[in-house]
Write a structure and sequence with these properties.
heterodimer, A: 291 residues, TIM Barrel, 2 domains, 8-stranded parallel beta barrel, two-stranded antiparallel sheet, B: 484 residues, alpha/beta, Glutaconate Coenzyme A-transferase, 10-stranded mixed beta sheet, 28% helix
Amino acid sequence: MNLLRTMMFVPGNNPGMIQDAGIYPCDALMFDLEDSVAQASKTDARFLVQQALMHLDYPQRLVVRINDPSTDLGKKDLEAIVPCCKAIIRLPKTETADDVQQCADYIEKLEQRRGLPVGKTQMMAAIEGPEGVLNARSIAASSPRLIGIALGAEDYVTAMKTTRGAGEELFFARSMILHAARAAGIAAIDTVYSDVNNEEGFIQEVELIHQLGFDGKSIINPRQIKPVHRIYTPSEKEIEKALAVKAAIEEANRRGLGVISLNGKMVDKPVVERALRTLALAKASKALQED
Amino acid sequence: MEKKTTSYKTDKVIGSLKEAIIKSGLSDGMTISFHHHFRNGDAVVNQVMKEIAELGIRNLTLAASSLIDVHEPLIEHIRNGVIAKIETSGVRGRLAEAISQGLMQEPVVFRSHGNRAAAIESGELKIDVAFLGVPSSDCRGNANGFSWDESSELLCGSIGYAMVDARHAAKTLLLTPQLAPYPNTPAAITEDEVDAVVLVDSIGDPKGIVSGATRYTKNPKELLMAEQTAEVIEAAGILQEGFSMQMGTGGASLATARFIRNKMIEKGISADFALGGITQQIVQMHEEGLIQKILDVQSFDLGSARSVRDNRFHTVISASQYASPSQKGAAVNALDVVILSALEIDTEFNVNVLTGSDGILRGAIGGHPDTAAGAKCAIIVAPLTRGRIPTVVRHVDTVVTEGKTIDVLVTERGIAVNPGRPDLKEKLEKAGLPVKTIEELRQMAEQIVGCPKPIEKTDRIVGLVLNRQGEILDRVYQIKEEKA
């Protein structure tokens, strides 16, 4: 199971951070070519990220946030990054399903032109405004390339004429994105928490989004990795239960039974799914040894 | 026996530095010594050298415990022939650059703190006049690196390096801005070792003691290495009731102290002692009851300097007690673990802390080889690369500490254990730590930053690095100046 508990932003024009990003235990790295890179540095950043993808080994899943793909900048980003075959393309400020499809079409062209397997490049869409939130469902279902949707809250709260607070202001957007993602069977990633020094506030927010059901959170500093992973680590009781369910599945398989039962009760499909996810999380956080 | 006629209050006190130098009998070709407890705030070396130069004395050997950026004016004294030779544990700044470019006729002799003490004790390094700045001294020379009068802000804490000079120099002169009431005891340097107490306007600025940031780092890479280091120490089985440790002042070192502190609280254990250059962080752990005693040869920040005065079991020790290999006992030999840094480390685990990637002198040997040799477990913590410079290399530019005394290297991309310690390797692997061979780490570094071009040097030797026994371990060569 590919976990996405933590996706860490790395500015695309910072060689030191790009060089070191691989040492941190986050699940994914997101190299940014968009908002964290000044207009004058766009070309440098694109080259730097492309070279890093080609020459450095990263143990994490890799994502590159490109500039608006309907612009020249965004197209050049795609031309540089897609052929590396290493990174998921993250679309910024997605408002409609059409945004995703147009980008996917351009990626397909690039794949064909470069002789790459068509459809292999994966995508992720960031939803950063009210229009996108309301269209979340169609966005999430817009392309088979899409593996997840992410909330970008900074632009969203501004458009909503509010500011970041305890989370009430994001409740609707988070719920929409989660429902859209779950209905489409893809991942839902929560927005960043920018006050790196407020660990308590960060933990509160992670607990909230964990309970809501998000797959994980975008982060901006390696110090934020541990708290997220800790919160996403299943409890001993949950692990025990999941192991029992797993044993019941194996038992049912061995005996060729269609119905899985545990302690005399039938185990439903959702219980099975939850148990498998619990075990994956437990292994990732080393709460459980690998098989 | 004739009764003394002069007053004990005045017969050792001299009001002028010039007069004190003349009275000391200093003459051409002699050896003078200084300590570096005021680090970059030191005002003694430059002040004394200026007077000596004005007196026309030449051809001296300057034996300092270390030389730092603030000592740049020595360049002129070397050019003018006042100083002919230097013995030190390190050299930094413009002076270091000038020496690397061939300023001196004679190579600088680099000694570790332990070897310096041993050489002074054996007479191999014979000091004719020691000029030792002290924050407090009485009229007879009972002196400390702080004042028992708590209102005084002039302090450097330990004066452990100066203690050896005071004991063995033919003439020992203390420099201090004002006299403490007699007897200024307990004292680190005592009157039986002191020839004269010289009143001067200033000996240094305590604010200069602080070596870089001694605050806890927020740098995530340093934190990552620190956490791994603490885990190595735990996995090695060192974190037992009554263990002992020494830690440096670098970001990763200080952060390691914090992680160790947490582990000690979790386990409910305390350390018997912490040794070395002492920081506020170690003092804090002492005050929390996590470290029973502190043995302090050098105080790295004002917090630790104050603690020397205020904490009964924060004890000043001499460089000899700290690390001399030729005495009956040295505290480094009682260390369970020491955490050290490196500019470079090679695949034989040899460490360079003296010359930079450009071949220029830029550091100090300090107690590096002494603690590495003495401690049961010597851990080097260093990033695999610094910018575009690899830290793990095939051959270090200058060997300062021999690889056979290093047990573990911790980098942000993996841990390497000296093949001479298979037991340790097994323990770390069992704990699930990312153990790799040092050659694997070297290749990783090369993959990231490539292989640097060799440094261009002439065949002229500008520095000799001695090992703890005083034998030549390596040579530092003059660098070829870049053509404009």
